């Protein structure tokens, strides 16, 4: 496939230049009249999160990746909030995002970081595709009447929610201009750059624990200002997972919101990557990092033997882990069957399982000594 051509996208150039200028001018005007009400500041923070989650939990994880399903009202609210970001309809947004995942770091990636930080952050938005994007990769979304409706009426809906709702809420305490300018307009500009940072900072700053074969990076710092999308190395490796930050302390409001909704049945079929697949990715990545460090030093017999030792230790670890998991599954299957006649067999299996666990733990310790640090610990 040849990369698509691009020409200046004047609508976006004007929009993305005029809106920050209008926000600055509006805020100066607002402060000339005494500044926004304190209630409007609280509303602004809440609104930033509401729209930010519309993008992360809605546009990104629900529509683009189908990492969970949601009941109609939740879908509607996430669609409206995501739309209020003025980042396009869910159909257009998801089409670009699926292309990004499929062709990441190549010239077919719409926000390819290899074309520079600025291009990935913002530059790609001001260059229009020729021919325009097609929707071949979002046929599932095109069949959704709700998303079709949003796509057809995008600008009106986005303006209504982005500007209308905050103006209406802030007018409850007599500050409609504050709601319009601070929450609606300045909030939209802020959220633009928060979301754009996922394509720039999250492919530039942080670590690569799960894969070194793409530029996605994990960073708690970028997670803080991208509403939890900062665990981007994980996300590119396991895009169908409804979580981005998989550990309990990882800042990921999208994950918390989806888990919360699932308690009431409002979100369901939450997808998670298998923990053995995650561990396998971590170990393989650790191995690849060491092998590349070794090959950067002298290439003599000793280096080759060291590389072989690392690779076989990783294989031993993986085999020990798989064996342990297999026995564990078998043990629980027999135990749960409740059949008395299997008692002897279950006891034998228990002994075998204990040995397999010890073997695995030994292989893990050896591996950690070899690579010089402990892998991310997960429940095994
Ligand atoms: Zn990415
Ligand atoms: Zn994604």
Order of helices and strands: EHHEHHHEHHHHHHHEHHH
Distance between the termini: 42 Å
Instruction: Give the overall form.
Output: globular
Q: What's the number of extended β-strand segments?
A: 4
Low-confidence runs: 376-380
Report the C-alpha radius of gyration, rounded: 25 Å
Number of folding domains?
A: 2
Tally of helical segments: 15
Bound molecules: zinc ion
| Average predicted local confidence, pLDDT | 92
Structural class: mainly alpha
Largest sheet: 2 strands, antiparallel
Report the helical percentage: 55-70%
Strand-residue fraction? under 5%
Biggest sheet, spatial arrangement of strands:
1-3
Keyphrases for this structure?
single chain; 380 residues; mainly alpha; 2 domains; two-stranded antiparallel ribbon; disordered C terminus; binds zinc ion
């Amino acid at each position: 496939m040849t990369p698509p051509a691009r020409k200046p996208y004047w609508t976006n150039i004007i929009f993305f230049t005029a809106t920050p200028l209008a926000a600055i001018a509006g805020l100066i005007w607002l402060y000339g009249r005494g500044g926004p009400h304190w209630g409007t500041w609280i509303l602004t923070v809440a609104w930033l999160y509401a729209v930010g989650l519309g993008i992360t939990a809605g546009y990104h994880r629900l529509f683009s990746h189908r990492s969970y399903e949601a009941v109609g009202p939740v879908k509607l609210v996430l669609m409206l909030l995501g739309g209020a970001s003025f980042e396009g309809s869910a159909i257009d947004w998801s089409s670009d995002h699926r292309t990004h995942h499929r062709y990441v770091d190549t010239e077919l990636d719409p926000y390819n970081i290899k074309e520079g930080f600025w291009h990935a952050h913002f530059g790609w938005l001001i260059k229009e595709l020729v021919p325009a994007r097609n929707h071949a990769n979002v046929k599932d979304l095109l069949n959704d009447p709700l998303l079709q409706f949003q796509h057809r009426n995008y600008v009106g809906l986005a303006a209504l929610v982005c500007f209308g709702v905050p103006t209406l809420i802030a007018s409850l305490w007599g500050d409609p201009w504050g709601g319009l300018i601070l929450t609606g307009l300045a909030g939209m500009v802020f959220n633009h750059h928060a979301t754009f940072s996922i394509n720039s900072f999250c492919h530039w700053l942080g670590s690569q624990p799960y894969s070194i074969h793409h530029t996605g990076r994990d960073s708690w710092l970028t997670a803080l200002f991208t509403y939890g999308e900062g665990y981007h190395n994980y996300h590119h490796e396991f895009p169908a997972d409804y979580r981005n930050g998989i550990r309990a302390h990882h800042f990921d409001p999208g994950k918390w919101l989806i888990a919360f909704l699932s308690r009431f049945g409002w979100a369901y079929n939450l997808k998670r990557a298998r923990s053995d697949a995650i561990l396998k990715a971590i170990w393989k990545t650790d191995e690849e990092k060491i092998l590349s460090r070794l090959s950067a030093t002298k290439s003599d017999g000793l280096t080759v033997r060291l590389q072989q030792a690392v690779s076989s230790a990783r294989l031993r670890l993986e085999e020990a882990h798989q064996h342990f998991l297999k026995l564990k599954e078998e043990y629980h299957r027999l135990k749960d069957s409740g059949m008395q006649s299997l008692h002897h067999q279950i006891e034998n299996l228990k002994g075998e399982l204990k040995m397999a666990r010890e073997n695995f733990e030994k292989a893990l310790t050896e591996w950690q000594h070899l690579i010089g640090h402990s892998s991310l610990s997960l429940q095994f």
